[in-house]
Amino acid sequence: MNAHDSERLAGLLEEAGFQAQKPESALADVMVFNTCAVRENADQKLYGTLGMLAAEKLNHPTMQIAVGGCLAQKDRGEILRRAPWVDVVFGTHNVGSLPLLLERARIQRESQLEIVESLEIFPSTLPSKRDSLHSAWVSISVGCNNTCTFCIVPALRGVEKDRDKKEILDEVRALVADGVNEITLLGQNVNAYGVELGVRGAFADLLRACGEVEGLERVRFTSPHPRDFTDDVIAAMAETHNVMPHLHMPLQSGSDAILKSMRRSYRADRYLGIVEKVRDALPLASITTDIIVGFPGESEADFQQTLDLIAQAKFEMAFTFKYSKRPGTAAAEMDNQIPEDVVAERYVRLHAFTEEIAWQQKKAQVGREVEVLVSDMPGRKDDATLRQSGRARDFNLVHFVSEERLRPGDIATVTVTQAAPHHLVAENPPNAVRRTRSGDVWESAQASTETRTFLSLTPRP
Ligand code: 5AD
Ligand code: SF4
Prior knowledge:
InterPro entries: Elp3/MiaA/NifB-like_rSAM, Methylthiotransferase, Methylthiotransferase_CS, Methylthiotransferase_N, Methylthiotransferase_N_sf, MiaB_methiolase, rSAM, rSAM_horseshoe
Domain MTTase N-terminal: 1-107
CATH superfamily of the largest domain: Methylthiotransferase, N-terminal domain
Helix content: 25-40%
Low-confidence stretches: 450-461
CATH class of the largest domain: Alpha Beta
Domain Radical SAM core: 130-361
GO molecular function: 4 iron, 4 sulfur cluster binding; metal ion binding; tRNA-2-methylthio-N(6)-dimethylallyladenosine(37) synthase activity
GO cellular component, one term: cytosol
Bound molecules: 5'-deoxyadenosine, iron/sulfur cluster
CATH topology of the largest domain: Rossmann fold
């Protein structure tokens, strides 16, 4: 979500006459921080970085610093109190105001703070500067109506707002016309999509409609909530040729008692039931997840249930998190918080176990032929061997050897020869390469990229 918001910020700034600068080059005229508040260490990182920038600001008094995103929404005036050299603080619903706020701060020589409580226009109407030429995010909803007791997101992103289906599909078609061949539908809880509009089965319908967009090779989505994951969605995934066989579905815990206390409305059985149905309908699907360890009240037995569920679900990958106490959430008030050393010790076991299961899953792919969408990364040469990378249909990262340099967005069919915990390797050149229009677009962009490189972020005179 934040990555996509950052693309919007970049798009808005470009439209206002700024140009992006590479992070490793000299200081820019404007620095924008798009922050996350899901876990506490993001807070600490921001204030640390702002502290370091205080000295830079003395050396470059015209440099402007802007802070947006969830942490800005949460801390509001606190950011300006702790770092008065910040020029602009803008909330999660104020992305569109950034260029104006920068201008106002410059002219009035005064910090600007703009944070509204709720969204008026759906943010996708704002311009966006994509990080990738062939892959794009498409927002289908923002906000979340759930009340998971550990989660700060609903307080900062507001209630769920769904976007009109026609608008979504128009954007998808426009992206395809622009050379995109992979989209990821984005929402805090994608399969609740349509509830606000009063349409049943709206998410499954949307997947099917994406299947009819010509030239769209791959459709992905993130993230679904197990509560709303209906059979109809599984059927739509299986029937729609370009919906990829990958499901990232947050589990959080394998213990029913903890799920209840987290106010996650499903139980371990229901979760495993979905996994089973997905594997039946899409035998080549990979399933990935998010897991929190050390939630208040988690006993060793609860934790063991999480490990058991991981073994049963056979996750291809899991993002694992130590529980982080967030202000204003119900879980922060619970009196059975787990001591840090216990959380840390369980985290080490959880991480090692998920890695082991993930590796087993990946080893099972050796010998299999997979289709890889070549990534934007340039590829590298070791001992005169060219190596390129991309994602398989099931989202596994695949590094493969190639005789010629393939174009980002093209599709290579390779045979997997090795598995590592986080990726697959194909040591022989592709069995086939399918050129796509994305590759053509990439080639013509290459021919004219010199103008895209990276002056400092300077307002148009
Ligand atoms: N502590 C730890 N992890 C959290 N997540 C969300 N809130 C917290 C928290 N307070 C994790 C969940 C979610 C992912 C995006 O971040 O696993 O699915
Ligand atoms: Fe947070 Fe739960 Fe909503 Fe996800 S579904 S954003 S974890 S409240």
